[in-house]
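Task card 7
Instruction: Convert sequence to structure tokens.
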Amino acid sequence: MTIPTNVIKNRKILLAVTGSIAIYKTLELIREFVKAGADVKVVMSQSAKKFIAPLTFETLTTHQVLDDTNESWANEHNHIQITQWADIMIIAPATANTIAKLAHGIADNILLQSALAFRGVKILAPSANTNMLQNPLTQANLKILKAANYTLIETQTKELACKTVGDGAMAEPLTIFYRTCRELLKEEFWEHRRVVVTGGGTIEKIDEVRYISNFSSGKMASALAMALYMRGADVMLIATKFADTLPADIERIKVESSQEMHVALVGTIASEDIQCAKKRPYLFMAAAVSDYVAEFVQNTKLKKENLGDTWRLNLKKNIDILSSIDKKGITAIGFKAEMDKEKAKENAKKMLQQKELDAVCLNVLQNASSFGSDDNEIEFITHEKVVHIPKNDKLNIAFAILCNAKELQE
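Output:
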């Protein structure tokens, strides 16, 4: 799943870089921000310039880098004006030295002065040797910064520059990118709201090597989970397939059969997180659950010489997950794929009534090739109205679905 070029269009990001070998990852982070439509400016410490020249950052951002040698009060190129310009500030990589100085309000370089002057959300992505990171003083400094409303992004355990394996590597650029998008795009309505999303086509076994399934790619469910994450929701994605680029912060349960999906969904809905949630939870049932399953599943491989020239496979009607689960206290939205254009809306409205849903997202398919595409077109159908969501990439479709879903409780 690719991120649309306009997801954070015209948002202003101040990116601070310190003297760590992880600085090379920041170049990729800038590329992600620029591709997503953001405007990026960079402030560098003197030690950071030992690793990468300012010209590299200026080429990627098309803005002059701010450092200790070029601050000007004749224009906006100074640590006060640049922080007033920015919507968010990110320090990546942040060395143990910078972390210590930030925690104690020391401002002996322009990067630290900028951090002290910036009043908005600050994201901190540490990078340090394992021993330096785990030193009690560094851990205490991180706690101070967390209490001071810094958003901390956890380090990784991997081979470090010192050739040892341990915790201390800076988070991957995509992780920092997603967290930044979440901070920029979150809405009070969705923030900390528990949301369950199901996705993908279920896999129903016939024997140990054969199964019944469908062409559902799970892309719409992954796009919904991504959009919900960026809006600030606490997301649980229960699916047979996941997009490779989903944020690690999105909880997920991998299932195959409709039975596994049913068990996972019932357990999740019955959990204390859902039942005792302060905000009314949501369920987006985007999974393509098989209508029929094999009547007798074999625990071995069926031999074709035993089956003969024709094989009659007995099927039985499958459980209707959406009808069977307890939706009390949950805003439930179903998804319906139709190929009959004439009766599509009528069938969607029947689903709305019969399964006691708050809304149905209707997707009218052209043919089998419609599955797995990167875009979609939806009719958002409630008991009161039908809203057409024009064809767009699936993440933007997901954001539009959330706008309409929010109105169900407003």
